[in-house]
Give the backbone structure.
Amino acid sequence: MKEVKYQLIFKELADRIKRGEYPPHTKLPSEHELVDTYQTSRETIRKALNLLSQKGYIQKIHRKGSVVLDINKFDFPISGLVSFKEIMKKMNEDAETIVHSVTVEKPNHVLQSQMNIGKDEQVYKVVRSRKIDGEAIILDIDYFLKRYVAVLDAEIAKGSIYEYLENEVGLQISFAKKEIVVESCTEDDKMWLDLLEYDHVVVVKNYVYLDHAQLFQYTESRHRLDKFRFVDFARR
């Protein structure tokens, strides 16, 4: 489908923001200036600016214009229960999943406590790093109860495990409890992440339940400090 003009203008302005031609906290040219630059209507410019706002590139401030936001951080929702693949698709980011291992294990004492399971329970342990724009900035360590997931391999893990569990296994994933902490980097973090100078990571611990309130997954999602902010929406 041929793109309409406001979409082309959106892409050009977004690219210029990404390249740093419009740095964070500066203002874009005014609507009037953009109308002259692109030789188009004010309505077309407003549609392009609205799309930039929806995608998190700018904040439109009444009587002050369009202020460029810091796009070097990625928004991860706290309250939602969505997969990395779904988030990246929504954000339109260039992302890659690297599967380091998929193993079947007996849980250690810590995992027994985290998942409230016995020592003889079997779990899948899946270790994956996530690259965004070529940098490995997330390390996901997932544990799934094997009694609910008979088959789980590296090919499945490279895609969306949730798509597989819901569409092929038929599990009904219902809700999650989340805990966010800052921890010192582990040896796994140092091995699999592009940490730069950072010696701590933000860790999101997910306890994921099926529709009958059975905990079946525990995840530690370990994020490089500088790249992420976690967002939620609240209304009083």
